[in-house]
Design a protein that fits this description.
single chain; 107 residues; mainly alpha; 3-stranded antiparallel sheet; 3 strands; 47% helix; elongated
Length: 107
């Protein structure tokens, strides 16, 4: 289901770095303006920020940014769980398999 951003109170995407949704960066700096446009076009972790173009200007909404952050967080957590599971599977090698790998390495 897609959301109708026009009913969510739009703001210009170029103003996203000034938004209270975006905290300060290292050394008190601000997020680069291009970052929001990258989120809207390329996405992050397979998630793309919802935007709408009106009159040649790209807009988003506070709820859209919050949904984007939630989806990126969930995607990163899934990735971490997959990596942890793979590491656990690797650690469950039998002693014979472990010895075989050591022999291949010459150790």
């Amino acid at each position: 289901m897609t959301n109708d951003l026009t009913e969510e109170g739009l703001f210009l995407l170029k103003d996203l770095p000034k938004s209270p949704l975006i905290g300060p960066r290292r050394k008190g700096g601000r997020m680069h303006i291009k970052t929001g446009f990258n989120w809207a076009t390329k996405g992050m972790c397979g998630v793309v920020l919802e935007t709408v173009v009106q009159g040649g200007m790209r807009y988003t909404s506070v709820p859209a940014v919050r949904r984007f952050f939630a989806a990126v967080t969930a995607a990163k957590e899934r990735k971490c769980r997959r990596e942890e599971a793979a590491a656990r599977r690797e650690m469950k090698q039998s002693p014979a398999e472990f010895e075989s790998e050591l022999d291949k390495l010459g150790i």
